[in-house]
Amino acid sequence: MLQQIDRVTKGGDRLQRVNDFVVKFANVNGSGSASANALFAKAVLRMGIAATPRNIFPSNIQGLPTWYEVRISDAGHLAARGGGPDLMVAMNPQTWDQDVKSIEPGGYLFYDNTKPMSEEKFRSDIVVIGVPLTAIANKAYDDSRQRQLFKNIVGLGALSALIEMDPAVIETLLAEQFKGRDKLIAANVQALHMGRDWVKQNLDCPIGLTLKHANTVGDRIFIDGNSAAALGAVYGGATVCAWYPITPSSSLAEAFIRYCGRMRVDKATGKNNFAIVQAEDELASIGMVIGAAWNGARAFTATSGPGISLMQEFVGLAYFAEIPAVIFDVQRAGPSTGMPTRTQQTDITACAYASHGDTKHVLLIPEDPYECFQFGALAFDLADRLQTPIFVMLDLEIGMNDRLTKPFDWDDSRTLDRGKVMTAEDLEAGKLFGRYLDVDDDGIAYRTLPGTHPTKGAFFTRGTSKDRMARYSEEGADYQENMERLLKKHNTARSLVPPAIERKAEAPTRLGAIYYGSTSPAITEADLLLAAQGIHLDLLRVRGFPFGEEVAAFIEAHDRVFVVEQNRDGQLRSLLINELEIDPRRLGKVVHYDGTPISARFIAGAIASRIEKAVS
Amino acid sequence: MTFLAKPKLHHPELHKNSLGFTRRDYEGAISTLCAGCGHDSISAAIVRACFELELPPHRIAKLSGIGCSSKTPTYFLGASHGFNSVHGRMPSVLTGANLANRDLIYLGVSGDGDSASIGLGQFAHAMRRGVNMVYIVENNGVYGLTKGQFSATSDKGAKSKRGVVNSDEAIDLVGLALQLGATFVARSFSGDKAQLVPLIEAALQHEGSAFIDCLSPCVAFNNHEGSTKSFDYVREHNAAVNFLDVIAGREEIVVDYPPGSVETVTQHDGSTLRLRKLHTDYDMHDRVSALTYMQERHAAGEIVTGLLYVDPNPRDLHGHLKTSDTPLNALRDESLVPGASALAKINAGLR
């Protein structure tokens, strides 16, 4: 027996929005809701409307609540909006109270009212939509697993009717997902319409939040940054991957396994043009990377903060002995175990200056999956060119969430830059080989690979001090000359890392903001909010370290520059002050570090209040 | 001066192997270890083994960690690339190097501090992965470079030079290697070149994880009365289970042995090992009984040496990973970069 509708409306204005709202799903673990949720986001995209989903999950496998939040934005905003959802799909009794509380005033609450909630469990300023999903599914299916799985599709159907999501789009997606399994497609489509029909027969449709076909998606693709970076590693010619599982980076290595399986198995022999080892820890991971790169293979590891801490000694060896290595750091909230499933940009300092002694490393900082791919490939060229570790700095926000991004591109005329490697022919021709000899005055010396020539070019790689010919030396002059050359090499890197990108404000301004990585979509949106208040900012997106000249020039050209980051201490700001010798008073610190992705509302609010304070 | 080059002058009549190299061509710089150090004997044994096997020196990569033993790769195979990595982490660096180029021979040299203390984890995991390598631990039970502290292979009850008695149980790397799946396990003594050289030769020809625990007394800090790693102690307690006579495949040496006392093992690469059995009841193809035998003899105070276990047909890490026959570091762009059209397909699947 189906329950009656319990649509409660008490006062307040209902939200009325087209193609611009936030839907949040409160999930019960193990209920199979993930695929239905993903289907929801994908359907919005297929309607041509930009949608950005975020998984919000604890460091746990079963039993703790998870959420899936989808921001729908016809204007194309991809950042977390901030604030609560406009429509809450509350499927988890465990989090009911906080979920109901979080809804924006005038928003909507969708729930399974097979067992109706008592009225005091609602708010008076929201619209409550009850659909007896369990009852509908139980009536239609006998098998308990089917009841559970199809209930999610029934729910999606119900939602689609309420917000005018095009059912044809969902049907197409189901057909693609279950291609070749026609029965399964039919069953899913049937469940979808069960939900739609029930809502249409029993409720007033649509609600105030609706979707209309649009064209904001264009030719963009939808992928997570970890997969994109892994694909970049494939295109960058990586053959050795050594890794140790750690959230939020594991899916990067797993994506590499997947892509290699598809694209790197030799068709004739069935053998692998790659080797992937799950190491015993992060020390072994980076050790294997260094060993492989020393021997001429392109190698990488993927890790997160705790792994970076463990790798410090080896990173120092690679820096000092000058061995290429690529490290993808998918940052999460630290210190220590911190919040393993929450996002932060918190390893900037730890990576820029990794290891004891005087060290400086090269960082690449992508803003989205497109750049994860680009920088993922570029990192291997840079590592070989500079013979040093290259850190690619992702974070959980970019790494683990599907994101709308520019389609990947590749120029087939591009070749892998293997850097300065002396061949057997070079040696035979009598070319002078000194492993640490700065022949080109760029700080980068030639190397030879083991096994190259029977009598020439062998040398000893070591973490101890050495002279130009790679002979062990504790002479102060030898040591210092080497350290100065390493600094020169770091300066060479300045022109090789992707330059910072400036975006001028529409009106001339003496105010600027520097940002990087996953802050990108939020600041783009914040810029509009601020401009509406008459606050104009020139924006500079830093994409690498060491900083290029354009970074110093930008700071020089502005009276006041806000450095917007997702960590407590303003790590990039410290790096700017330290490396460019900037007066700290000129760099305002705007930091967001509660583990949630930074939002436009936060940035606009923080910058506006600083400016007001300064004015008053 | 912190580096001592060895004069390149050779005796004109020095014997050359078929590659045209003399034994001296397999040497390295002059050792800066203490006079009489067991490690120098092991270096000499490595030089001889490589010379006799006629290995092209540049096709060997020698890797080590940190410590006295890890310094030794400077003192042999001067024409080979060497890598002195970080303390206890040679196994991972070697594993990575091996992944990059399966065609070279990998020789890892380590010490008891490097492998049994700080690097026990990496030692264990390299063994269980079946990395194709020769892994020699130059075992003296003591930290030399930091002047005489106990290492994890020091026997319980052993006395340090300063008279301190070790109260911790010793870690037996041979036992671990056996348990963890090493496919060639031997123990030897730096003072017994006749035993050590053929073992190194056999290990170099083994296509899997070959481990040699080589007792190598420290003349400066662990060669006194009360030590269980001194020259005298090891000589007195050495109990060899077999004696590897020849590596056949080249010159045949005909010797008469009583029936049942000789065992021939053909390794995967075609090389043949002929072992004179000193204990006819010892089965070097049985991991479990080898472990039991070791523990029994250890309890009786003996140091069992010889080729303790061998699997003539091992499968190495590349076999497990199905890696291409072409070394990964030699693959060209066309085998590595899928290209723009493949990317367009990926893009199409992501909309």
Question: How would you characterize the overall build of this protein?
Answer:
The complex is a heterodimer of chains A (616) and B (351). Chain A has four domains: 203 residues, Pyruvate-ferredoxin oxidoreductase, PFOR, domain III (Pyruvate-ferredoxin Oxidoreductase, domain 3, 3-Layer(aba) Sandwich); 183 residues, Rossmann fold, CATH 3.40.50; 70 residues, no CATH class; 115 residues, Rossmann fold (3-Layer(aba) Sandwich), CATH 3.40.50.920. Chain A is 38% helix and 18% strand. Chain A has 19 helices and 24 strands. In chain A, strands 1-8-7-6-3-5-4 form a seven-stranded mixed beta sheet, sandwiched between helices. Chain A has a seven-stranded mixed beta sheet with strand order 12-11-13-14-16-15-22, with helices on both faces. In chain A, helix 7 packs across helix 8. The N and C termini of chain A lie far apart (65 Å). The N terminus of chain A is likely disordered. The N and C termini of chain B lie far apart (65 Å). With 351 residues, chain B is an alpha/beta fold. In chain B, strands 2-1-3-4-8-7-13-9 form an eight-stranded mixed beta sheet, sandwiched between helices. In chain B, strands 10-12-11 form a three-stranded antiparallel beta sheet. In chain B, strands 5-6 form a two-stranded antiparallel sheet. The longest helix of chain B has 15 residues. Chain B has one domain: Thiamin diphosphate (ThDP)-binding fold, Pyr/PP domains (Rossmann fold, 3-Layer(aba) Sandwich), CATH 3.40.50. Helix content of chain B is 30%, strand content 20%. In chain B, helix 1 packs across helix 7 and helix 3 runs parallel beside helix 5. Strand 18 of chain A pairs parallel with strand 2 of chain B, so a sheet runs across the interface.
